[in-house]
Each structure stands twice: as C-alpha cells, then as structure tokens.
Amino acid sequence: MKLLHFAAIAALVVFVFGAHERAAAAPECEFSARIQEVEKISGGGADAELKARKELLVLISDCGVKDIKLLQVNLANVPLYDNDTKAARTKINTELNEAIRYYELQKAKVNDAGLRGTKEVAKNLLEWRGIHYVPLSQKVIAFTIWGKNQDLMKATSERHANIEQAIKNLNLSDNEEIKKKFT
To answer: What DSSP string runs through 68-134?
Structure first.
C-alpha cells in the first residue's frame, strides 16, 4: 500500500513539473489580451480586424507547434525498455508530427484568408484541438510518466527482493511481527 501511495505521489510530481515546464517555456503564448484586442477592433474596420485576426492565428499556430515540439522532447527522453515501448513511442511521435503538419496547414490558410476565412480557421483550430490535440497531449504525458516511473518501480522491486532475502538469511521469517509487516 505504501508503495502504491509513493508511486502515486511520484507520478503527480512528474505531471505537475511537466505542466509547469510547458507553461513556463512559452509565456508569449498567452492569448487573452490578444483575443480582447481582436474583440475591440471587431466592427471598427475590416482591415484592422483582419490583420489582428491573422496575427493571432499565426501566433496560435506557432505556439501550438512549440508545444508539440516540447512534447516531442519529453517523449524522446522516455527510456526504451523493449520493442513495444519503442513502437509506442514511434507511433505517438508520428501523431505529433501529424499535429505539427495540421498547425502548419492552418497557418498557411491564414495568409490568403479574408475575414470569413480567418473565422473558419479559428473555428477549425478550436475543434481540432479538443478532438485531436488534447487527447494526444494527454497520451504523451501519460506515456512520459509511465516511462519515468519504470526506473522507480524497478528499484522498488529490487529493494523488496533484497529485504525478502535479508529476512530469509537472518531467519526472521518465523517472527510474527515481521510476517505481518511484509505480507
């Protein structure tokens, strides 16, 4: 039970640290002020609104690519324990590359888009993130946590085996108090 509790705390620390690392890496990717700016301009002048929308969509695409590349770095740091782990990491990395291509495609559409086109690109990006990107990023985070915890689990198993061996070697296996603690 204590092992499970420790593993859960370790996983939480890795998850929180990873989320903080991602957020700290791209402070320019905070969009609230830019969105408010577009809302203020909206209805004032079509040229100014179009320009602001295009700039925002380009920034969103660039930040999306930065976030994916950071996920790829974290994924690349997962140790490869066997061929299944390698195949899973390759598959996830392929999905991340597809996500980068999607962002780049949407960014390319922005250049030639008018006001209606920029609204369509924004709608597509928002829908795509919810349907495809969010689950993919969660998959990367889970895989990364799993990979980082494998060393912890291996060390824990080795320590448990060493303790069992020490108990056997010291003939403590008949001691009822020790039996209760290790069974």
So the answer is: HHHHHHHHHTS---SHHHHHHHHHHHHHHHHHHHHHHHHHHHHHH--HHHHHHHHHHHHHHIIIIIH
pLDDT, tens digit, 9 for 90 and up, residues 2-27: 443 333 333 434 444 444 344 434 56
Return d(Cα 100, Cα 61) in angstroms, integer: 9
The alpha carbon torsion through 100, 22, 26, 87 (nearest 10 deg) reads -20
Burial class (CB in 10 A: 0-12, 13-18, 19+), 34: middle
Segment 161-170, tens digit of pLDDT: 887 777 777 7
Look up residue 172 and give its two tokens: 């403590």
Let me know the angle formed at the C-alpha of 83 by 142 and 70, rounded to the nearest 5 degrees.
Answer: 40
Alpha-carbon distance of 62 to 103, in angstroms, equals 8
Ranges of residues in the chain whose predicted pLDDT is under 70: 1-27, 172-174, 178-179, 182-183
